[in-house]
Amino acid sequence: MRKTLLPALAMLAAFTSFAAPAAAQAPSGAVTVIVPFTVGGLNDLTARAVAEKIKGQLPGGIAVINRTGAGGSIGVTEVVQGKPDGTVIGLAPTPALLDQPQMNALPYKGPQDYTAIANTVTYYQLLAVRGDAPWKDIKELMAAAKASPAKLRFGTSGIGTAAHLNLAQLQAASGIDVVHVPFSGWAEGSAALLGGHVDTLVINPGEGRQLTNAGRIRILAVFQPARSPFYPDVPTFKELGYDIGVNLSFSFFGPKGLPAGVTDFYAKAIRAAVEDKAFQDFAKAREIEVNYMDSAKLAAFFDKEFKEHTALLDKLGLLKK
Amino acid sequence: MEMIAGLAHGFSVAALPANLLACFIGVLLGSLVGVLPGIGPNAGMALLIPLTFAMPPEAAIIMLAGIYYGSMYGGSTTAILLNVPGEAASVMTAVDGYQMAKKGRPGPALAIAAIGSFVAGTLGIVGIMLVGPGLAELALRFGPPEYFVLAAAGLVFLCGLSTNPFHIAFIMVGLGLAISTVGIDPITGTQRFTFGFTQLAQGIDLVPVIMGLYGIAEVLTMMEEGEQKARLTKVRFRDLVPSWLEAKMSFWPIMRGSVLGFLIGLVPGPATVVSSFLSYRVEKRLSRTPERFGHGAIEGVAGPESANNSATAGAMVPMFALGIAFSPATAMLLAALVIHGVQPGPMFMLNAPDVFWGVIASMYIGNLLLLVLNLPLVHVFVSVLKLPQNVLAAMVMILCLVGTYSINNSLLDIWIMVIAGALGYGLRKLKVDPSPLVIALVLGPMIEKSLRQTMFLANGEWGLILTRPICVGVVAALMLLFAGNALFKWRRRLPAGAALD
């Protein structure tokens, strides 16, 4: 019974997708979504939420696989080297897609080596200090940094990360001279901030919420063009006159040369998934914004961001020789 | 008083049938991933997190925590019976545990490992409740300079464990440190020593190296020697329970291991591994008969097995008190909490008392379940030794391969394990102890990263380390220890010709 039903269902599914107005075409066979970061992280949860939503449209099934390591470049490489038939796609943040290939010799050099499918979420980072820090607001902190050059310690999540690019932009725009201390992520950085080993830390939204509520840390400013709806009282650096801020976006992508029909199919399915209420709630809980971009828009976004990051990384001497 | 009320509430949560079941499944799976070589708590939890999405938060966290501490029970089983550590944290258990098995005492070794784990696990939970919040604040005082000094001192102290001559140990440490640098630079994020292989950028993981050096090398030796060294034909009850003397000899090692493990758990890094090495070293140092170590001393099983268990409790202190993860396993628990809408942080205990106290209470229950589960299993596990050698060897080989692959879904890890296996076999032939290599591989990344962060903090001034009281204290303690050691040796040599040993 099941044996006869399955192909029939598959045909039906294929038929309905053909019947859709555009030439969207679901890939045939089991689909693997490669996530280059660990289980339970934002990257992983976003991928799983979308996969759960679109699995009904994929008769061959869909599985999320975590291939971690090397700042995400291991997982991205696996997607890039996959067969361009839609059975292997990935979800990765901009640093893994755009910055890693500029800093390291990788099998992919930039957006020309993969197909942009669709963007899911975008967020900007925040600048945090200890709850009992002497600076009341960002102006006082900037004044203190100017008054005593090379004295204040600013922590980030590592050299070449978005946090570092944000800090470097801030230094260049404001002329402050601070000591940069790179950590490997929130856990290490937050412990150092709370313990007083650094004076400030560049953090991701969501991460610091509990410590903020408990009064252990304060958010002084956001690296964002406009105020964050989650921190309406926190000023942007733009308000201080510094037009800076690197965004982090999580985008679906596939191997180079993915058929337009398949890209289209995924883009539509992903759009429906991220516009779903459950996904919107998930994003809100993580203090990030749903920011759908279709394939063409995302490709243009990649190109623009890639060039901007090239300039930033070049200034920091981080471009691969 | 508040604590007793909280705990009582916790037990009422943990005792709900669904949560009891979650706890049981968790510790059972934990024991299983512990017994299976290669696959460890991190891989086990990563595989199961997606399955917990549909559970209520308490049940999910109870189950995942069960896998974490449960795995520390199981790791000793293959170490003792087959000389193949089930976890990185059981490397030291294999040294004396396997010798005990060879001498016909595998049962007592397994039983003491389970009892030690139970005592340490239970004391660890008491520690989380009583001194957790205070200790978490204390742990924050440790910054990169302190971590650097601690890790470097640890490397020097632990290498005294090795039975190698000094120059050999030195080479092994160098090799371990060198291997630890392959992959991604922890500070700049750039790739190094990958020789053009993108795959190598993921780095050389500890688990495949250990599975190769100990697991594969042991299988090769087994096949070569043909005859079975630790084979039992009949399992008698008398051979399963520890004797009164064995129990007495294990008491203080278990206590010391519990405290040591809990404290090491508060330091970021692979605390379960470091604490088991440290406990072994301490027991050997304190023993009046250190020459028994390496030949089946039960203290060498009791101490490390207790330490690695209480280290899991120690690692949960910063997680519960501040919402900060110091190890990959606690990071996984934190991620699970967030997935279930529970925000860990300084207000965790107040905001989510059901989860906090429920998990704490479930850990008492879980440890008891593990003891009840593991003691009768001693009989089953010991029966494994009845299997013929060739069957055992093939089984271990397959388990190592599958377990190692499961960590990162990476074929490279399999290759690393195979190469490490060949290296381990070669080292055995040369009678070289690989433990300094393992210690260097564990501590190397921590030493490198914290040293470089210290240099960032200090703007390149080495003097900063000397201005930090904790650093000076650790260095002074190490110096005193060495001075004491030298004095001790000198005094032993004094009565020339007197047969002291």
UniProtKB/TrEMBL annotation, chain B:
InterPro entries for the chain: DUF112_TM
Keyword Transcription listed: no
Tree of life domain: Bacteria
One Pfam family matching this protein: TctA
Record keyword Transmembrane present: yes
Spans through the membrane: 12-35, 47-69, 109-135, 147-163, 169-188, 259-280, 320-343, 355-378, 390-407, 465-488
Ranges where the DUF112 domain occurs: 20-439
Keywords for this protein: Membrane, Transmembrane, Transmembrane helix
PANTHER family in the record: TRICARBOXYLIC TRANSPORT PROTEIN
Name assigned to this protein: Tripartite tricarboxylate transporter permease
Upper lineage: Bacteria, Pseudomonadati, Pseudomonadota, Alphaproteobacteria, Hyphomicrobiales
